[in-house]
Amino acid sequence: MSDEKARPGIEALLEETRQFPPPADFVAKAAVSNTSLYEQAENDPEAYWAAWARKLDWILDFETVLEGEAPDFTWFADGKLNAYVNCLDRHVEAGLGDKVALHFEGEPGDRRTLTYADLLREVCRAANGLRSLGVTKGDRVAVYLPMVPELAITLLACARIGAIHSVVFGGFSADSLRDRINDSGCKVLITADAGWRRGKPVPLKATSDEAVAATPTIEKMVVLERAGVRHEMVEGRDIHWSDLIDGQPDECQPEWMDAEDVLFILYTSGTTGKPKGIVHTTGGYLTGVSATTRLVFDLKDDDVFWCTADIGWITGHSYIVYGPMSQGATQVMYEGAPDWPDCTRFWNLIEQYGVTIFYTAPTAIRAFMKWGDDFPASADLSSLRLLGTVGEPINPEAWTWYHERIGGGRCPIVDTWWQTETGHIMISPLPGVTTLRPGSATHPLPGISVELRTEEGEVIDEGGGYLALNRPWPGMLRGIWGDPDRFVRQYWSFWDDKVYFTGDGAKRDGEGYIVILGRVDDVISVSGHRIGTMEVESAIVEHPAVAEAAVVGRKDDITGEAICAFLILRDGFDHSPELRAEVQDFVGRKIGRFARPKDVLLTADLPKTRSGKIMRRLLRDIAEGRALGDVTTLADPGVVQSLKDRYQAEG
Ligand code: WT7
């Protein structure tokens, strides 16, 4: 926690009073159209979740539902199932083999349609291929792929044979990939030659080679040939994807999994320099994502669902792979950038595939707004019936634009709040029930319970506070890989009564509408991607010219927040524009392109308290050009004024 725990209380909020009840024709067809589900779930949350769990196929039915004490809960622990079988076999067995699972479009325009039967076959072959490499239940498999069908296929192949996948987003650097592989001791890395982004191949094999130079546990590297980029293969270690699956049988015996067997690890940033491997298990996670896919997206058999997230983040795990596929949905999957070859790309995809449900991030919406109304207006978007957002607070202006320009004023918008740790959506409207208010994620879903609390743990009914989750939920994280102490410290120790602290501040009004205010800890959200300030600072100080660094988030019109770095140079290094650019690139190489600081300010000193703690709140005030806050606890108040002058002069 930083020095600004009180942020949610002091944040001024735009009063948003407009209300949007669900349209009558939407309600008429909605899966849920009244509030009885909330009451039912509230009367007996365990029975409510057990009923959702029983909609899945279990090899061995469970008798226990929720067991344990905070933070060590288990769900459906004596049941056995296979996540993959629930995503594919059962649909094919139910006669849905010919239903389209994925309409894939690559950035260069290449297209592939995969039915559920196609996917089942492809996944079985990949699973057999992985088994032939010696991958067995419980082994960790690192995945570093572009957004192509093989990414989804790889996850499901791991699930089929009980291997634990750890996906690393393709925008991460070699160092980040290496650290994640080493933290969980992955045995195999699955990558590609390159992926396409804005007309250029983004190399992945070369980055993988660099990472794997220092990963003792990696035995094999599988390389998908996606972009036709020349690459080196290491004899005995590397194998092409096509060779891996060549000649493999179309059938593959699935591994039986206990509900509490680990399904995957996904790394996310925290308040220290070291990313956390968030652990999710099988039965509860699958129950949570499939229930929320049905409820929040009102998913029907003939819907065409498009979630624009990358599978490298939790949104793609939960709402491309496990949620929609466990529900037998037809989806659109797109590899590249929204503005390639021009800004109509997304809208053309919606028209072409008749997308009915569209789920994206506020940062994308703000970019669409900036590009202008002509682009969406040039396509027929009338197939859309429901819109969603995730990842960061959506400002009412962007909400309104999304509602009118994309949704034609007729589509409800589900503003969904959740986290890598929660596994599935927690706070969101039900589109056939909830009256919407722009900027509010509205209420906790049925079965979910939240609290706003003061720092001391006092529960607040109305007003701002810290967002806490005070009741276990099936998709909850089961731990941090290899670090049980950090798990307890990070999430369950903020108050004495072992309630989960989300790290977010929020505000609730008299009618129970929740507005998420953002992180209260030292975590920045750039385009909805979480980056720890410490992580960026530790990267920066590795640069030979840098003596000390302080990183804060500042508001940004498009990305929500932007990274702003204040640096003190070592003696003998001069302030220069070149050095700034070098530091930006350096961070890009160390962590990943998306973590490059937008602003780099070279300074002679940093504002610190008398105890030597950097005053981030003041730095943020400076970065956002605000009047200076309270400087009475500052060791050298002059530092701040000169920093501020300099920042404004350098722009
Ligand atoms: C953090 C979680 C959940 C998938 C994407 C991000 C912020 C998430 C919302 C929303 C306001 C949101 C929170 C949260 N966040 N959804 N609808 N409104 N803020 O996953 O990287 O684990 O980040 O994203 O700050 O704690 P993540």
CATH architecture label of the domain at 527-650: 2-Layer Sandwich
CATH class category label of the domain at 527-650: Alpha Beta
Strand order of the largest sheet: 12-11-8-6-7-14-15-24
The largest pleated sheet is described as: 8 strands, mixed
Beta-strand level of the residues, as a percent range? 15-25%
The number of E-state strands comes to: 31
Rounded average pLDDT: 93
Please give the share of residues in helix: 25-40%
Catalogue the unreliable spans: 1-14
Write down the CATH topology of the domain at 527-650.
GMP Synthetase, Chain A, domain 3
Radius of gyration: 24 Å
Distance between the terminal alpha carbons, to the nearest Å?
30 Å
Shape field: globular
How many helices? The count is 22
What are the distinct ligands in this entry?
5'-O-[(S)-butoxy(hydroxy)phosphoryl]adenosine
Q: Can you identify the CATH superfamily of the domain at 527-650?
A: ANL, C-terminal domain
Category from helices, strands and their pairing: alpha/beta
Structure, described:
The chain has 651 residues and is an alpha/beta fold. The protein has a domain at 527-650: ANL, C-terminal domain (GMP Synthetase, Chain A, domain 3, 2-Layer Sandwich), CATH 3.30.300.30. The chain is 32% helix and 23% strand. It has 22 helices and 31 strands. The longest helix has 17 residues, at 116-132. It is globular and about 75 Å long. Residues 1-14 have low confidence and may be disordered. Residues 268, 314-315, 390-393, 415-420, 441, 502-504, 516, 518-519, 525, 528, 530 line the site of 5'-O-[(S)-butoxy(hydroxy)phosphoryl]adenosine (WT7).
